[in-house]
Amino acid sequence: MPIEPRLIVTGHNRDGDAVFVEDRRPEPVSVQALPGADFYLLWGTPDGEAKVGEQDAKPVLRPYFPGLGGSRALFLRWAAHSSEPQPVPDPAAVAEEVAQKLPGLTDPFEEKGDGMHTTDTVDYAICLEGELCLELDNGAEVTLTPGTCVVQLGTRHAWKNRSDRPALMCYVQIGAVRVPG
Fold first, then answer.
1. Which CDD domains has this protein been placed in (predicted)?
2. What CA–CA distance (Å, rounded) separates 157 from 141?
3. Which of 32, 92, 162, 173 has its CA 20 to 30 A from that of 21?
């Protein structure tokens, strides 16, 4: 039985007591740019320094990738390779849909269409279900299985589901400064 993403948020009431302020199942977001994938946007913090204790804290989910000091947490269910729909041939429609639903998602992707991209983030990528392949720019690959955590430090990479089952990943992204290498 597949995992159903759920978000629980804690905070404080007016007396300062810890309380549950949110408990919900996020709606999946899909875009033609990644056929068959479902994004579950959970939470994000504004760019800059993280703060706790604010009354009525709200998630920052846009743009898709956080800026310096910001964060994003999401689940992404990748379609099984065998069931990936064929991409829609109209690039303008794809770009417009991404700009509306997940602004900034495709900005770091290269034009070749092979999924390679580089972001200025520290990413914790945790495989929860299925298998997902992580490919680096030199052709090196590793297959992630449930329980695997990848710490992605701004390297050029691509994610690919080559299996016949969907894969569910949890990503936590933190905006970072790129240091010249």
1. cupin_BLL6423-like (cd02231)
2. 10
3. 173
**Do 151 and 144 meet the contact criterion of CB atoms below 8 Å apart?**
no
pLDDT at residue number 81:
83
| Bridge partners, residue 127, by sequence | 169
CATH of the domain at 78: 2.60.120.10
pLDDT, one tens digit per residue, over 105-154 is 999 999 888 899 999 999 999 999 999 999 999 999 999 999 999 999 99
Torsion of CA 84, 90, 95, 97, to 10 degrees: -70
Report which of 88, 80, 116, 72 is spatially closest to residue 31, judged by C-alpha positions: 88
**DSSP secondary-structure letter at 93?**
H
Q: Are 54 and 23 in contact (CB under 8 A)?
A: no
Whether residue 181 lies inside any domain: the answer is no
Which pLDDT score, from 0 to 100, does residue 128 have? 98
Contacts of 135 by beta carbon, 8 Å cutoff, 6+ apart: 115, 116, 141, 157, 158, 159, 160
Nearest to 87, CA basis, from 63, 115, 108: 115
Q: Give the three-state DSSP class for 91.
A: helix
Question: Are the C-beta atoms of 126 and 152 separated by less than 8 Å?
Answer: no
Looking at the 3D structure of the chain, how many domains does it have? Answer: 1
Q: What is d(CA 89, CA 28) in angstroms, rounded to the nearest whole number?
A: 23
